[in-house]
Amino acid sequence: MGGVWVLIEHRRGEIREISFEMLGKGQVIAEKLNQKLSAVILSSDTKVYVDKVKQYASTVFTIEDKQLEHYNPLSYQAVLSGLLSEKAPTVFLMGHTACGMELAPRLSAALKWPLATDCIDVEVNGDAIEGIRKMFSDKVNARIGFRGAKNCLITVRPGSFPAEIDAAYDGEIISVHSSLKTEEQARKFVEFLEAATGEVDITRADVLVSVGRGIGDAENIPLAEALAEALGATLSCSRPVVDKKWLPKERQVGISGKTVKPKVYIALGISGAFQHVEGMKNSGIIIAVNKDPKAPIFHVAQYGIVDDVLKVLPALTEKAKTLRTA
Known about the structure:
Elements: E1 4-7, E2 10-11, E3 14-15, H1 17-33, E4 37-43, H2 47-53, E5 59-64, H3 73-87, E6 91-95, H4 98-111, E7 115-125, E8 128-135, E9 140-144, E10 152-156, E11 172-176, E12 207-211, H5 221-231, E13 234-237, H6 239-243, E14 264-268, H7 274-277, E15 285-289, E16 303-305, H8 309-325
Parallel strand pairs: 1-4, 1-6, 4-5, 5-11, 6-10, 7-10, 12-13, 12-14, 14-15, 15-16
Antiparallel strand pairs: 2-3, 7-8, 8-9
Helix pairs in contact: 3-4, 5-8
């Protein structure tokens, strides 16, 4: 059959953003390969998701089973292995999430298909699929080939592609019979525990003023808070600031923190390690202040100031106050 397939991740009745990111990239890959784009939904009630997903794929395969109400790698692998073996898509995309990181290796072993994990891009080279992934602490982008394999699996790092995509389809819905026989006992879903939220949700902010190690000391945090207040912004930070306990974990941006997409992101004294950049690179406008002209943060920033952040902060705050008053 061939084609480009995307696994739709959902949680508590909501489709996760990574699914739309992959559908958007899937459209591009399918067009280059001159193949169809398909989506796969596993759930106890797929009707909740179908109407949304069929706008972004030519075909939507649905598998309904009470045992699929919650993600379980054993039941997911069982039903997907059969479907993928029968239909043999050219490439099957999954998010490099807690789900994808566990499920993809299982499918790869069961199907004996090659797998590339944690890819930041997927490219078409002639008729071949190639995954692009970062290696050696973000110093190298490696191009991963599949040695002429007809089918492959790829997990995609969240935030690698835009989630805002054109709804260009009215996909055909194909219901697939579940191959699950008896309830899987080796692993069971018990309950969903929501992570405790703090007083501030930085993911909802339109403007973020973010501080890094370059702020120097906890005593200098109020300088950044003053700028945030003047701009009507929210204060966030990089991991070193949390590690030093200058700000709470709920304020952290990055792979081990939160992924944010504000309209404006102001990075103060942040070097720009890939762990941090992955959490904010899709911001609308990125403004960086760092005394090191070679700091990686300048590679993703549209505007930059090379100077000591402690000298720049008071000037920025005063200017922001003047503009707001005007």
